[in-house]
Design a protein that fits this description.
The complex is a heterodimer. By secondary structure, chain A is mostly helical. Chain A is built from eleven helices and five strands. Chain A folds into two domains: about 90 residues, no CATH class; about 160 residues, Ferritin, core subunit, four-helix bundle (Ferritin), CATH 1.20.1260. Chain A starts with a strand and ends in a 9-residue tail after the last helix. The N terminus of chain A is likely disordered. Chain B is mostly helical. Chain B has six helices and seven strands; from the N terminus they run ββββββααααααβ. In chain B, strands 5-6-7 form a three-stranded mixed beta sheet, with no helix packed on it. A two-stranded antiparallel sheet of chain B has the order 1-2. Chain B starts with a strand and ends in a 5-residue tail after the last strand. The chains are: A mainly alpha, B mainly alpha. At the A-B interface, helix 6, helix 7, helix 8 and helix 10 of A face helix 1, helix 3, helix 4 and helix 5 of B.
């Protein structure tokens, strides 16, 4: 086994060569990769699919990691910390309107290719409500891409970037184009991420009223889509607490923070309504969606984006 | 006697809209009073106008406080509507189990939105109750709360209108905190709109049909406050007079 570590654009890229097969990790998906072993359920769910991954050959990830000497594991984990610190300091300035739009464009690319691939996969999306909804959703995402690219100054602008390559297996954890339940689950996580991401970026557009309104309009469409996909899965259209509604544990960062109960100084768990039925304490967490920071969004998108154009 | 208000576009030069009050309504004919506040055309910054009584009628005011008050009025309407829906004598038989769960959730959410916006306004005006929009009165006329399709159609209208209202008002907020608060609410309103629409018609992507999501851009529609207040006025459910002379 060989290990190479080098820096690309402020990030560390690690390559582990195992039985002549190179495995590339950015620091972010390396963290996800290692975290994935802390959940037995995820391992069980993905055990059979892992074996089919060309990238890993016939070697299960767990055994790969187990085979590493302790010193190597330490080496893998140490740069993760320094890289995270670097990320925090370098992204502190990424709060311009352009940065906000570019982050949104990355998410729209991620979503649109996912849905288009799903629609193009024979037998995956059932005819009727499901297929109608995803057809509408992918068309909306294309509209969002056009809107964002125009706002960024067009494809000739230095602010524009092309769609990167995505890995919707997240390094072999998921198999969404052969498993409709997983396709729906990832769809939900993408839409709920989009809702929270646009919300988090809206203050960065406050100086650009037209861009802000366009972003709010896209944000509202993402929210409609999120609710529809959640309902297709049999879940509520809104997020209760930080409940990920049966999604795999890797999706928990999409929901962390949604349990916020205090809004504008009001403890929403204690709201009553004279003349109406009692209001459950959990309802306040449903009634408000919470923003995600740029770093949180990049961390989630990074699971599916081996080389992130924004980093 | 029913008290109504009317919205009327006046003063093309300053693009502001004025909500006009009719103190009397007789046989479907509304009397319109077209008065303006004293400083409308003096270049006074609308953003400094606080919510409160002017000429005997509560005005939303301008700036962030005006937008918050505008949102508070819309949330009062939604909360009142869903309170009546879940209180309906035949709620358990008019709607199936799924629909009851959805409508109960919407009732919870809208009451909480109303109370949170009320508190946000109270904080902004240092608890000066003269500057907090009072509880509005509502009347739904012939609406039958035991009629499933009637109730769902009104819910759709209210939710779609609410989303468009927040979308159009966000750009008038100067405070990032207020913008974020509005953003936290509007996405849930949009989830509501989507689900209500799918209860009416689960197929044909009705949750995001062309009347609410522009097919070429994928953008949910946005409405200026004056447009929204016109639509609300046309619905005729709010019985309490108010003006909105300083919004945007």
């Amino acid at each position: 086994m060989r290990l190479k570590i080098w820096a690309i654009s402020k990030r560390l890229l690690l390559q582990i060569t195992f039985r002549n097969q190179p495995l590339n990790f950015t620091t972010m998906n390396l963290i996800k990769f290692i975290e994935s072993f802390t959940d037995d359920n995820a391992l069980r769910q993905n055990a059979s699919r892992r074996q089919s991954l060309g990238q890993l050959g016939t070697i299960g990830k767990k055994s790969l990691l187990a085979a590493m000497p302790t010193g190597l594991l330490t080496l893998l984990l140490v740069p993760q910390k320094s890289a995270a610190a670097t990320t925090l300091t370098t992204t502190a300035d990424n709060n311009s309107p352009t940065d906000a739009l570019r982050l949104a464009l990355l998410l729209e690319y991620l979503d649109s290719e996912f849905y288009q691939t799903g629609l193009d996969t024979n037998g995956l999306i059932p005819a009727g409500r499901d297929r109608d909804s995803f057809t509408k959703i992918v068309n909306n995402e294309y509209g969002h891409i056009n809107t964002l690219v125009q706002a960024l100054g067009g494809t000739g602008s230095p602010n524009y970037f092309e769609k990167p390559e995505f890995d919707y297996t997240a390094g072999g954890l998921f198999d969404p184009f052969n498993n409709y339940d997983q396709f729906l689950a990832l769809s939900q996580s993408f839409e709920d991420t989009g809702v929270r991401a646009y919300k988090g970026q809206s203050p960065n557009l406050i100086s650009k009223p037209e861009m802000l309104q366009a972003a709010l309009q896209i944000h509202a469409t993402e929210s409609r889509q999120a609710a529809e996909i959640r309902r297709l899965r049999g879940a509520k259209g809104w997020i209760q607490g930080n409940n990920r509604d049966g999604l795999p544990p890797q999706a928990q960062p999409v929901y962390n923070g949604e349990e916020m109960a205090t809004q504008a100084g009001v403890n929403t768990a204690q709201v009553n309504n004279t003349g109406g039925p009692a209001i459950p304490s959990i309802a306040g967490t449903e009634a408000f969606d919470e923003p995600l920071t740029r770093e949180q969004v990049l961390s989630i998108a990074g699971m599916f984006t081996p080389v992130n154009p924004l980093e | 006697m029913k008290e109504t208000f009317k919205v009327k576009e006046v003063g093309l030069s300053n693009r502001r809209s004025f909500l006009k009050i009719s103190g009397l309504a007789m046989a479907g004919t509304a009397l319109l009073f077209t008065g303006c506040s004293d400083d409308d055309d003096t270049g006074t910054n609308n953003n400094n106008q606080m919510p409160g009584i002017r000429n005997g009628v509560f005005d939303f005011g301008g700036g962030d406080n005006g937008i918050l008050t505008y949102a508070y009025a819309l949330e009062q309407l939604e909360a009142d509507f869903y309170t009546r829906v879940v209180n309906g004598n035949t709620f358990g038989s008019t709607f199936n189990t799924d629909e009851q769960a959805v409508l109960a959730d919407l009732y919870h959410h809208e009451v909480i939105h109303r109370e949170v916006l009320k508190q946000a306004i109270n904080t902004a005006v240092n608890n000066n109750q003269q500057q907090v929009l009072p509880n509005l009165n509502f009347d739904y006329g012939a609406l039958n709360f035991g009629n499933r399709s009637q109730v769902l159609e009104i819910a759709k209208k209210l939710e779609d209108t609410g989303v468009a209202a927040y979308n159009g008002a966000g750009k008038y907020l100067e405070s990032a905190a207020n913008l974020t608060l509005a953003g936290k609410i509007v996405s849930v309103e949009s989830r509501h709109a989507s689900v209500i629409r799918s209860l009416i018609n689960p197929d044909d992507a009705f949750f995001a049909a062309n009347d609410v999501v522009e097919p070429s851009t994928g953008k949910n529609i946005a409405r200026e406050p004056s447009q929204v207040l016109n639509e609300i006025e046309d619905m005729g459910y709010i019985q309490t007079a108010f003006t909105a002379n300083y919004l945007s």
